[in-house]
Write a structure and sequence with these properties.
Layout lengths: L21 H26 L8 H9 L2 E4 L10 E6 L1 E6 L4 E4 L4 E2 L1 H4 L15 E3 L15 H8 L22 H10 L2 E7 L1 E2 L6 E2 L2 E5 L1 H8 L3 H23 L7 H9 L2 E5 L4 E3 L9 E7 L2 E7 L7 E8 L4 E2 L14 E4 L3 E7 H10 L8 H14 L3 H6 L9 H10 L1 E6 L3 E3 L8 E6 L2 E5 L4 E6 L4 E2 L1 H4 L9 E4 L3 E7 L1 H8 L3 H8 L11 H5 L9 H8 L3 E5 L4 E3 L9 E6 L2 E5 L2 E6 L4 E2 L1 H5 L8 E4 L3 E6 L1 H10 L4 H9 L18 H10 L1 E6 L2 E4 L10 E6 L2 E5 L4 E5 L4 E2 L12 E5 L4 E5 L1 H10 L4 H19 L13 H4 L3 H8 L3 E5 L4 E3 L7 E7 L2 E4 L3 H6 L3 E3 L3 E2 L1 H5 L8 E4 L3 E7 H8 L3 H13 L9 H6 ...
Antiparallel strand pairs: 1-10, 2-5, 2-10, 3-4, 3-7, 6-15, 8-9, 11-18, 12-17, 13-16, 13-18, 14-15, 14-17, 19-26, 20-25, 21-24, 21-26, 22-23, 22-25, 27-34, 28-33, 29-32, 29-34, 30-31, 30-33, 35-36, 35-42, 37-40, 37-42, 38-39, 38-41, 43-50, 44-49, 45-48, 45-50, 46-47, 46-49, 51-58, 52-57, 53-56, ...
Length: 1470
């Protein structure tokens, strides 16, 4: 017989093998062996990551071209890929231990691709830094201990002997020792080749290796899609390989090992803000994550005091950081911290299984982190449960007594194995019992050369052989995790022990093994919380228990933290319970914590539990508890009773729409609801998990904004408020998105949870649902903008016309209910006396006529009252049919309940009775079609036209002052509606509010827009103040249908519209003239609007209304809200101070409130009372800023903002009062008030300042120089009279300038001047009477300045008059000299004429005595004063004495020779 190997290809000819000669048989054996090797190569290539996606037939061709030989595998760049196809080799990494590599083992992939020289084993960079705070050193900050920092550092795993410290010590890469070490560790040693038995089993040969050159691969792939795929795979693996080599996370590991790690790895791109690990999550422990690029921050949930725990940044991770603990892979170690990406990151993820397979294949890698393994083993030895506890937790020994368990523990032995170590060989007859206490083992078959499965913690190995059910093992057990702890029980000692325990002897004789699983129900039943529960409930709970491992210093729970609310049972190790930073106690094996959180009694953890040693815990998930309750409802009552005992001990945050509910109901709400912490700005959990949007939730902490699909802020949900309750009642969820403004805590109730709550509380179900519906109604009403109550009565004009007290009393009469989709809310002709308000959802108005159903869509309504006429008693049947298109929330109120309340409100009763009596046609059913036929406009139309136009007509009620039509609304035939007045009176208005006409019962409103005769509403319509108005709303779709069917009626309606349009046009013409002649000049006179264009002022003026005040009426009052500018068009008023004293009178053109319209002041600072009939216009602040917000008026906006900044700058500097010596400081209220009201005057150097023309409007004004210098000039030639500069010399009463027609001219550099009203001075003094001395100083200063300037202006005016007279006389002399009376022979005449004329041309030149004698002779006839010219010659602008009016020039000239100094003048003034 021929022994065939797995994978051999056999032909039928082999059956004839016995008839062949021996030489033929050998050739066939060689051919079969070659085929077997080719298939081995093919299978290996097909499984290699570098050939992933390549065509199998091409891989078979490569396998056929492989060159096989008996050799040792050799590694290096340029060498071929090598696959063992026969025999086996023991491979050693570094100094061992060695591992056996059999058929299918691959070598030198990196060398074939020329990558083996990439690793730089000693190029290590620090990759972790702590956050810059000193919590460890600060004794007051007890919330973060050294153990927690060490735990956080475990995320930065660097395989060095001192990885538990922050300092990373690296050997010098150039040292001789480092070079030798690198050379030794970089080599893979093949110790020996295991022999291969041939088919006859008699010869020994070396391992057979198949060699594949890279050129062979490229030639086979050339021109095929596999070439591209191979290139892509190679590039991806090269990236992973280079990153692993670059960051050197495994120092000294050879390239072959690193390539194996790269093949098991995955590359991930992480966006900023994404989470790499979540605190408390066990899934992150199933892989190692290497940071290739980017940076992440490490956050630790910490209790710092207050109501909740906060994430604290404890450090940062950069390139080269390794997230995860190599030694604890597979141990279900929850993440000690949260790692969040700060930038875009590239992450290399090394799965646990793939990495452990590399460790098993190359066990020498354990040397890279041997010191960590040593430390972990020490910690495990001190923290693992005692052997007696470990044995008692197993199903195998659960029925045994404690004495036997303790005796069994004494004969047991603990052993430690590392990855790759063989626990038990296949075929071995060792009958010892092995229990996996920590770590994992893998099950292998030698002949199949593959892994069959894994054994987790708590598994019993070898129980069949141990109890004599088998002789040898049928598989090999090898350590799969980096480290594993096993508990060994020798068979001989065990049976010797049984002889002393007969009860256990009988038990084990009848034993049938169950695979050695752990019995977790024993752990649950030992808890006092579950001691009285049924065994089925316990088994359900136990099936979901999860074992966890916590490192020393790691927090299991955080005080005031939000987590999964699981229950924990400690099975090994010790943990500290810390409250407010103080250690309260230490818990050990058998202790549990978290019961109240799991039951839903508390919303946050009451204490921080921190592992002191390595802790092994059992986690009882809350979801497992809820699942067990669902399967065993008989246990719910017991836990509900238990929870009520703790409600007094823990504060409960109940839903606001569940007032007065019993504690039992609150318990079920907290039990079945889900608590989450949201991310900021996203409706996700803090860990990035999407939260339910089709569920109800309550905001426990924070604020969440709901944004509707339209993009507007629809609602802000603050702390303690609910949202989405309509989902629990079958209504659709609001359309939009939820945006938390911060990290918010929410309590979520899904539809499934709500069904459980009402199912567990059937006796309270109706009341529970009623509370929810009422809460829904209240919130729906608030969204509609009604804030004066919890009902939608404010939507109805019937109640808007009544007092607030009446509405509040009616609230308790309102009933709320839900109408399912498709159901009729009201039906035409149905008896009823109730008003119905649709507050949420939508409905359609249905028409019975088939003509409309075929020609037009249904009319949709939302948030609308129905049946108001029924409520008022006008009709007893509903006049339309309304059907819900979706689930609708409605509120109803009946007429009997309203009549009961009306007994206490006679005014409202009279209002409703008057409305009822206004109907000209009353019957059991209001026939508005008859009303339309009697209408003056529609009386000429056919009945068919009216019937068609009235299809789907809607009865609407309006309260006094309600707006029916707004001017400017866009109109379109088929879209725009028209109205018919049935009762009451409405007013036609322009947009500015003036009434241009009234409409009464029977009149038609809005026919122009409804008929498409105008594109916009030309006028507005509002209800008069007389009372409630009843209108018929004719739908646009019905009007269009009537026009199309009866086009001749269109002309009748059009003529009526044209008549009204003519009246409106005439009124608009008169209004435009009023705006141009009266309003625009008044606006231009306001200082605020001086620099604004005329077009902008016209837009401001367009909506303004004229308001008239009688003599004695207050235009505005002190303390009133100030948000507008009041401009007096005509009339007169007085300004009254706080004490009621009149400080000034204002007349036409005066403006009040320039500061208020800018939004700087919010209250009126004085009372303005009309002293005779006055007309004013008011510019609202909102109107001004709305116009300034338009892009067309950017220049106007800049001018206004500049004006505001100037006023603010004046206030900051205290201008102008702080520049005057009156004793005011910048911080004084008076100085700031006057600075705010001072008007800045724009001055241009060299150009006289033009005084405004508003001096008659405001009274006395003062000019004050605050910067630069200016000159006071007089006359047409601009003669200088006085120098003006900041300070006392800069004050100028405006009345002096107007009296003498003087002007102020700025000098070359820019000057600044402020203009202040005297009324503001008096108001400020009387508003703050405690410090009024400044006013006395100011008045004294003003008096002195006025006297001094008056003297100078009088002198200047006299000089100008004398100059004018001299000029006139000069002209007369010239005329005399040229006249026939002039005697040329008279020498006096010649000389005098010549010299006088020359002197006049020179102006004020000195004249000698002879000239004066001749001048005296010439001036005799003209009465010219003899000393005028010399006096004018010596006149100075610095003189303080008045100039002579007549012939006293000599006295004046004498005074000019001794001018008084400025200092002397000031002393005399004081």
């Amino acid at each position: 017989k021929l022994k065939l190997h797995p994978g051999c290809v056999c032909w039928h000819s082999c059956l004839e093998l016995s008839m062949l000669p021996r030489s033929g048989t050998n050739r066939f054996i060689r051919r079969a062996s070659a085929n077997r090797k080719q298939h081995a190569v093919f299978d290996t290539l097909l499984a290699m990551p570098v050939f992933k996606g390549c065509q199998p037939e091409l891989l078979m061709e490569i396998a056929q071209q492989a060159d096989s030989s008996m050799q040792e595998p050799t590694l290096g760049d340029g060498l071929p890929l090598q696959i063992i196809v026969g025999g086996a080799a023991q491979v050693l990494v570094g100094y061992g231990p060695a591992a056996t590599h059999g058929v299918g083992s691959i070598f030198n992939v990196a060398g074939m691709l020329n990558f083996s020289e990439l690793p730089k084993p000693y190029d290590v960079q620090p990759n972790f830094r702590l956050n810059e705070f000193s919590d460890i050193e600060d004794p007051e900050k007890k919330h973060l201990c050294l153990a927690e920092i060490a735990c956080a550092r475990s995320w930065r795993h660097m395989p060095s002997p001192h990885s538990h410290t922050l300092k990373i010590e690296i050997e010098d890469a150039n040292s001789d020792y480092a070079k030798r070490q690198r050379a030794a560790q970089k080599r893979i040693s093949v110790l020996r080749a295991e022999p291969e038995l041939d088919d006859q089993g008699i010869h020994f040969v070396y391992a057979t290796v198949a060699n594949i050159e890279i050129d062979v691969i490229l030639d086979v792939f050339a021109g095929t899609p596999s070439a591209y795929q191979f290139r892509q795979n190679t590039t991806a693996l090269r990236t992973l390989f280079q990153a692993i080599c670059r960051h050197n996370i495994f120092p000294g590991a050879p390239p072959e090992v690193l390539w194996a790690v790269a093949e098991a790895s995955e590359l991930e791109q992480i966006a900023p803000g994404d989470l790499l690990a979540v605190e408390g999550d066990c899934h992150g422990n199933e892989a190692l994550c290497l940071v290739d690029t980017g940076e992440a921050q490490v956050e630790k949930l910490t209790y710092l005091g207050g109501d909740d725990a906060q994430p604290l940044v404890v450090g940062f991770l950069g390139p080269g950081a390794l997230i995860g603990n190599i030694c604890m892979l597979g141990s279900r170690l929850p993440s000690p911290t949260t790692v969040r990406a700060q930038t875009a990151m590239r992450l290399i993820k090394i799965p646990r299984q793939g990495f452990c397979e590399v460790l098993v294949k190359y066990p020498g890698m354990n040397a890279c982190f041997k010191d960590q393994l040593k430390d972990i083993n020490v910690l495990l030895k001190n923290s693992l449960p005692r052997p007696a506890e470990a044995l008692a937790s197993l199903n195998l020994f659960h029925p045994c007594g404690q004495p036997f368990i303790r005796a069994l523990a004494s004969i047991s032995e603990r052993k430690v194995v590392c990855a790759g170590d063989v626990i038990r060989e296949e075929g071995e007859s060792d009958p010892a019992l092995r229990i996996v206490e920590f770590g994992m083992a893998q099950i292998e078959k030698n002949d199949e050369r593959r892994v069959l499965g894994f054994t987790p913690t708590g598994t019993i190995l070898g129980e069949r052989a141990f109890f004599g059910l088998g002789n040898v093992s049928f598989s090999r057990l090898r350590c799969h995790s980096p480290v594993a702890h096993l508990l060994y029980i020798p068979q001989g000692k065990f049976f010797a022990l049984l002889e002393h325990h007969p009860d256990e002897m009988q038990q084990f004789q009848n034993l049938v093994t169950d695979g050695g699983s752990v019995k977790r129900d024993n752990d649950v039943v030992n808890l006092s919380l579950f001691q009285n529960c049924g065994i089925s409930f316990i088994n359900t709970m136990a099936s979901s228990i999860v074992p966890l491992t916590f490192m020393p210093g790691q927090t299991m729970t955080v005080q005031q933290g939000m987590d999964s609310r699981a229950l924990y049972i400690i099975k090994g190790g010790r943990a500290d319970v810390i409250i407010n930073g103080d250690k309260k106690k230490t818990i050990t094996n058998g202790n549990s914590f978290g019961e109240l959180a799991m039951l839903g009694i508390v919303k946050r953890r009451a204490a921080t539990v921190r592992a002191e040693t390595i802790c092994f815990c059992l986690e009882v998930p809350r979801q497992a508890f809820l699942k067990a309750l669902d399967l065993h409802p008989e246990e719910k009552e017991r836990f509900a009773d238990l929870s009520t005992q703790h409600f007094g001990e823990s504060s409960q945050f109940t839903w606001p729409n569940l007032p007065g509910v019993p504690d039992r109901v609150v318990y079920y709400v907290n039990l079945y609801s889900e608590r989450q912490i949201t991310a900021r700005g996203l409706w996700t959990s803090y860990t990035g998990e999407q939260l339910q949007s089709d569920a109800a939730f309550m905001v426990v902490k924070g604020t969440i904004k709901f944004i509707s699909d339209s993009g507007e802020d629809d609602e802000t949900i603050s702390e303690g408020r609910c949202f989405g309750e309509q989902v629990l009642m079958g209504l659709p969820a609001p359309a939009g998105k939820l945006v938390p403004e911060e990290a918010c805590e929410v309590q979520i109730i899904s539809q499934e949870a709500f069904d459980k709550i009402v199912g567990d509380c059937p006796d309270w179900k109706d009341k529970f649902c009623t509370h929810l519906i009422d809460g829904l109604a209240k919130r729906a009403v608030e969204r509609l903008g009604i804030l004066n109550g919890s009902t939608a009565l404010g939507l109805s004009a019937v109640f808007r016309a009544t007092s607030e007290k009446f509405v509040m009393d009616m609230h308790c009469q309102v009933a709320t209910r839900i109408v399912p989709a498709g159901e009729l809310i009201i039906e035409e002709g149905m008896e009823g006396d109730s008003m119905i308000v649709l507050v949420q959802g939508s409905a359609n108005i249905e028409a019975k006529q088939d003509v409309l159903k075929e020609s037009a869509p249904l009319i949709k309504i939302f948030a609308k009252p129905l049946g108001e006429l029924n409520l008022l008693g006008v009709t007893s049947t509903y006049i339309m049919s309304v059907r819900a298109t979706g689930s609708c929330l409605i509120q109803t109120i009946s007429r009997p309940s309203m009549l009961e309340v009306l007994k206490h409100f006679p005014a409202e009763m009279k209002l409703f009775d008057d409305f009822k009596n206004k109907h000209t046609y009353q019957s059991e059913r209001v026939n508005f079609r008859e009303q339309l036929k009697q209408n003056l406009l529609l009386s000429k139309t056919s009945p068919q036209f009216i019937e068609t136009a009235c299809l789907q007509a809607e009865h609407v009620i309006f309260a006094p002052g309600d707006e029916v039509i707004r001017k400017g609304e866009h109109c379109k035939l088929g879209k725009t509606s028209m109205y018919v007045v049935l009762a009451g009176q409405v007013e036609i208005m322009e947009a500015f509010g003036e009434v241009i006409g009234t409409l009464k019962a029977g009149d038609v409103i809005g026919e122009g827009g409804a008929l498409g005769l105008t594109k916009k509403r030309s006028a507005g319509v509002r209800v008069s103040a007389d009372g409630i108005v009843h209108l018929i709303k004719l739908q646009g779709v019905s009007i269009k249908l009537a026009v199309q069917k009866f086009p001749d009626q269109y002309q009748v309606l059009s003529s009526t519209f044209m008549q009204r349009a003519a009246v409106s046009a005439d009124f608009r013409t008169r209004r435009q003239a009023w705006l141009q002649d009266a309003v625009l000049p008044a606006l231009q006179q306001v200082h605020l609007f001086h620099s604004l264009p005329k077009e902008f002022l016209l837009e401001i003026a367009d909506p303004l209304l004229k308001c008239s005040y009688k003599c004695g009426e207050d235009i505005c009052s002190l303390g009133d809200k100030a948000d507008s500018l009041i401009i007096m068009l005509d009339g007169e008023a007085e300004i009254l101070s706080k004490q009621g004293k009149s400080v000034e009178r204002i007349t036409d053109g005066a403006a009040i409130g320039e500061i208020a319209v800018l939004g700087i002041l919010t209250q009126r600072t004085a009372t303005v009372r009309a002293t005779r009939d006055a007309n004013v216009v008011t510019v609202e602040s909102s109107l001004l800023w709305d116009l300034l917000g338009k892009e067309d008026w950017a220049s106007a906006r800049q001018a206004i903002m500049k004006h505001v900044s100037v006023r603010r700058e004046q206030v900051e500097n205290g201008f102008p009062m702080c520049q005057l010596p009156v004793g005011l400081q910048v911080q004084d209220c008076v100085a700031r008030f006057l600075a705010l009201h001072a008007e800045k005057c724009e001055m241009v150097p060299g150009i006289p300042y033009d005084l405004p023309s508003d001096y008659k409007s405001y009274g006395e004004m003062l000019l004050i120089i605050t910067g630069g210098q200016a000159t006071l000039v007089l006359g047409p030639r601009g003669d200088a009279v006085a120098k003006l500069k900041p300070g006392p010399d800069g004050l100028v009463p405006e009345s002096l300038l107007r009296k003498f027609d003087a002007q102020i001219v700025a000098e070359k550099r820019r000057s600044e001047m402020l203009r202040l009203r005297r009324s503001h001075l008096l108001l400020a003094a009387q508003s703050v009477p405690t410090d009024s001395m400044w006013l006395c100083r100011f008045e004294a200063l003003e008096k002195d300045v006025a006297r001094r300037l008056h003297f100078r202006l009088v002198n200047g005016a006299s000089l100008i008059r004398e100059r004018q007279r001299l000029k006139e006389k000069t002209v007369a002399v010239k005329e005399y000299a040229s006249s026939p009376l002039h005697d040329e022979d008279n020498p006096v005449s010649q000389f005098a004429g010549h010299n006088f004329t020359k002197s006049a041309r020179l102006g004020l030149a000195p004249i000698n005595q002879s000239v004066r004698r001749r001048n005296r002779m010439l001036a005799w006839d003209s009465k010219l004063p003899s000393q005028s010219i010399p006096a004018l010659a010596k006149l100075s602008i610095n003189d303080d004495q008045p100039a002579p009016e007549g012939g006293e020039a000599r006295t004046r000239a004498t005074l000019l020779q001794r001018p008084k100094s400025e200092a002397g003048f000031r002393r005399s003034r004081i």
